[in-house]
Amino acid sequence: MPIFDAEALEFWEENGYVVVPEAVPLENCRAAEQAVWDFLEMERDSPDSWYPAPPRRSIMVEIYQHQALWDNRQYPRVHEAFSEIWGTDKLWVSFDRASMNPPERPEWQFTGPYLHWDMSLDNMPVRLRVQGVLYLADTPGNQGAFTCIPGFHRKLEAWLKSLPPDADPGQVVRKYQAEAVPVAGKAGDLVIWHSALPHGSSPNSAERPRMAQYITMSPAPTNGNPEARERRISGWRERLTGLGKEQKEKEHRHGKTAELTPLGKKLLGLESWDA
Q1: Distance between CA 108 and CA 111 in Å, rounded?
Q2: Are 264 and 74 in contact (CB under 8 A)?
Q3: Which of 33, 128, 25 is nearest to 78 (CA)?
Q4: Is residue 169 classed as helix, strand or coil in its secondary structure?
Q5: Domains in the chain: how many in total?
Q6: Taking a C-beta distance cutoff of 8 angstroms, is the pair 252, 239 a contact?
Q7: According to the 3-state scheme, what is the secondary structure of 67-130?
Q8: Residue 200 pLDDT > 70, yes or no?
Q9: Measured distance CA(118)–CA(163) in Å, rounded
Q10: What sign has the CA pseudo-torsion 50, 201, 210, 255?
Q11: Computed over its alpha carbons, how large is the radius of gyration of the chain?
């Protein structure tokens, strides 16, 4: 059965984001959440452990290659959702990280990321590019949820043209923070958004941290891109940092290489979609 019905696809076209309910099972969420806690050397039920000493102030967690994260990347329903957005099942998955956004305290104030883009604004017209975040625990709107400005992808080009020549769009868009809509979700829900949407996380005024994993898929290169393919395979096998950094950090020194399903091997590039 398709992931998205006509109503969901209409919502996607209009707003530029969509929620996939129960994209992964609850047990997958629990395993990935625990992997993040272990990586951070924090205790899930010990709030005093959630706030590391400076200089760490980012909500991002530099975990990329853990088995639990790969289990979510290669879960069939996640792949099917991205396939329906792209119109092809021949996709590669990103090596993205996780996030732990704790409740604000006097000694811990949210520092972002506020509204921003992860794409170049110089390459117009707007083309389809997507991103996703998987909630690993129930996430109400006030619990540091993902936020975006719905529908902005449809007016981005006109908005950019309306700015003064010397304006920095990344700075200007922060004035629109009040228009950002928090997207709540249950553990296992996947939010997919169009990269042309201004988006970001949000301050957490709840009692629990927001625990999340970023997952993005895009069409696999038609020519196989042997160089990129080898880098990806090496990153997975050697447990290197993702997002193009490819460094030997904590995961390289500890743990073991994740096991892949037949689908996971194709999403990595280890096996060809045309084989």
Answers
A1: 9
A2: yes
A3: 25
A4: helix
A5: 1
A6: yes
A7: HHHHHHHCCHHHHHHHHHHHCCCCEEECCCCEEEECCCECCECCCCCCCECCCCCCCCCCCCCE
A8: yes
A9: 19
A10: negative
A11: 19
- Assign 186 to helix, strand or coil: coil
Is 18 domain-assigned?
Answer: yes
pTM: 0.96
Report how far residue 111's alpha carbon sits from residue 151's, in angstroms, rounded to the nearest whole number: 25
Is residue 271, in this structure, part of any structural domain at all?
no
What's the CA angle centered on 139, arms 135 and 144, to 5 degrees?
A: 100
Please state, in angstroms and rounded to a whole number, the distance separating the CA atoms of residues 226 and 102: 40
Is residue 251 a part of any domain in this protein? no
Print the domain residue range for 122. 6-224
Q: What is the CATH number of the domain that holds 180?
A: 2.60.120.620
Q: Which residue in 16, 274, 247 sits closest to 130, CA to CA?
A: 16
DSSP state of 223: T
Q: What is the pLDDT of residues 90-136, one digit of tens each?
A: 999 999 999 999 999 988 889 889 999 999 999 889 999 999 999 99
Give me the residue label for tokens 């996703």: 132
Q: Can you read off the two tokens belonging to residue 95?
A: 């090596």
What pLDDT shows up at residue 123?
83
The answer to whether 213 and 94 are in contact (CB under 8 A) is no
| Strand pairing class (217-219; 98-101) | unpaired
Q: Is residue 188 assigned to a domain?
A: yes
Place of tokens 């949000």: 202
Give the residue carrying structure tokens 């760490």. Answer: 56
Assign 3-state DSSP to the chain and report helix, strand, coil percentages, each to 5.
35, 15, 50
